[in-house]
Specification:
Elements (H helix, E strand, L loop, with lengths): L9 E4 L7 H6 L4 E7 L2 H4 L2 H11 L3 E8 L5 H13 L4 E6 L1 H13 L20 E5 L12 E2 L10 E2 L8 E4 L1 H4 L4 H20 L5 H23 L4 H21 L3 H12 L5 H16 L3 H14 L8 H19 L5 H4 L6 H11 L1 H6 L6 H10 L2
Parallel strand pairs: 1-8, 2-3, 2-4, 4-5, 5-8
Antiparallel strand pairs: 6-7
The structure holds 5,6-dihydroxy-NADP (NZQ) and manganese (II) ion.
């Protein structure tokens, strides 16, 4: 076995840790671009609070609030242009995975002279310093180097990440997450589950990431459903925020698998679909495929143990199959039962989606425990339709 594990992000976790944003930001710049979505951070008052906190420490900020869920390269290029015009020296991502991912891509594009899409192939020379202030517990983008963006002309939605894209510091304040509605809590929380499931069972899984996954599974068992049903439950919100970060660190080194490889083209071609809802539609067929792999089966059995559903004398294989039942129950408890068709995917796009998994997310296909080609991927999509 050999592996690398690296993460340079300074994490500040705690209720009301938002108040430290000014002191933290001051270390990196005085002219900040705050990158956020269209409404949630305005409605909850967090955006206004942040602007004031920064001002109190002498930091001027301007706000770019045109980031949509499943962000596009046009939004990112527009923000990078603004950052250059305004001589921005610091990018602050505020929101869910979409604004956070965008903040990293903007930080890269604002340093260079080419459209952000070109950085998929060309290594950037550097990036402006990035600070993340996360509002969902989901993607793990707050602590990792990845950014995911959609090319609206083609529907392609690749993930990319360079070392210069790690946030310098991440503020994880569970109070900010209390305003998430149930559906956002469910879809983003399910994303955490799939991150740890795929990192734990992937070909490049490693013992450090595994230990993060095991802790995240335990936190999910404890608090996922409570966070969905009791938005203000700060213990549940805190547990989910920590699980999100652990999962984000895990996928940074151990990667994701076929569920993510197929979901990106789903929400790339149908941008109204929430990433976590797409994952939910794809998970059962994917687990039924991956359980055929012996090593994966052993890991599934371990996860089933963490979820504690051991009744009577069960073989490892029984336990692994139990996990699929556990996942079905979680999906039903949090209300994520929609198949791809129910989410608005049209059947004639399935072939395009299966092809794009290999062209835009091949690293995830390769990390999947079971080797599969386009034919098997298409079957999987049809089973999830
Ligand atoms: O857009 P606004 O107005 O901000 O509202 C958002 C959006 O409608 C809302 N929201 C966020 N925080 C809230 C809130 N509403 C109330 N209270 C809050 N505290 O929720 C909606 C979804 O937000 P979004 O940022 O799109 O969700 P998420 O965090 O799931 O991010 C999804 C994006 O991240 C990518 C996905 O593909 C997708 O593009 N991913 C990034 C990864 C990474 N960087 O490692 C890995 C993931 O696998 C994933 O691919
Ligand atoms: Mn994900």
């Amino acid at each position: 076995m050999s592996f690398d594990f690296f993460n340079p992000v300074k994490i500040h976790f705690g209720t009301d840790s938002l108040k430290d944003a000014g002191k933290i930001a001051k270390k990196y710049g005085t002219h900040a671009l705050i990158v956020t979505g269209k409404s949630s951070m305005q409605k909850s008052g967090v955006l206004d609070k942040l602007v004031k906190i920064l001002k109190d420490e002498g930091i001027n900020s301007i706000v770019f609030s045109d980031i949509t869920p499943n962000p596009t390269i046009d939004e990112i290029d527009a923000a990078a242009k603004l950052a250059k015009e305004k001589n921005i020296d610091l990018i602050i991502g505020l929101g869910g995975g979409s604004p956070l991912d965008s903040s990293k891509a903007i930080a890269v594009a604002a340093k260079g002279n080419i459209p952000v899409w070109d950085y998929l192939k060309i290594q950037p020379k550097g990036a402006l310093p990035i600070i993340t202030i996360v509002s969902t517990s989901g993607t793990g983008s707050e602590v990792n180097r990845f950014s995911v963006m959609t090319n609206t002309k083609t529907g392609e939605k690749p993930g990319f990440g360079y070392e210069c894209m790690y946030p310098k510091e991440a503020i994880i304040d569970p109070v900010i997450m209390q305003s998430m509605p149930k559906y956002v809590t469910a879809t983003t929380g399910f994303d955490v589950f799939v991150h740890v499931l795929e990192a734990y069972t992937g070909k490049i899984s490693n013992p450090i990431a595994d230990s993060y996954c095991e802790k995240a599974f335990a936190l999910l068992r404890e608090s996922f459903i409570a966070a969905c049903n009791e938005p203000e439950n700060i213990k549940a919100r805190s547990d989910m925020a920590i699980a999100s970060a652990l999962a984000g660190l895990a996928i940074d080194s151990a990667g994701v698998g076929i569920i993510h490889a197929l979901e990106h083209p789903v929400s790339g071609n149908f941008p109204n679909i929430a990433h976590g809802a797409g994952l939910a539609a794809l998970i059962i067929a994917s687990m039924e495929l991956n359980i055929k792999d012996k090593t994966c089966r052993e890991k599934y059995a371990k996860v089933a143990h963490i979820f504690g559903n051991i009744k009577g004398n069960k073989t490892e294989e029984d336990m692994a199959y139990e996990l699929i039942e556990t996942v079905k129950k979680i999906l039903s408890d949090v209300g994520l039962n929609a198949k791809l068709k129910d989410l608005g995917v049209s059947e004639d796009k399935l072939e395009k989606i299966s092809k794009e998994a290999f062209t835009t997310m091949n690293f995830a296909v390769l990390n999947n425990p079971v080797v599969l080609g386009e034919k098997e991927a298409l079957e999987l999509l049809k089973d999830s339709f």
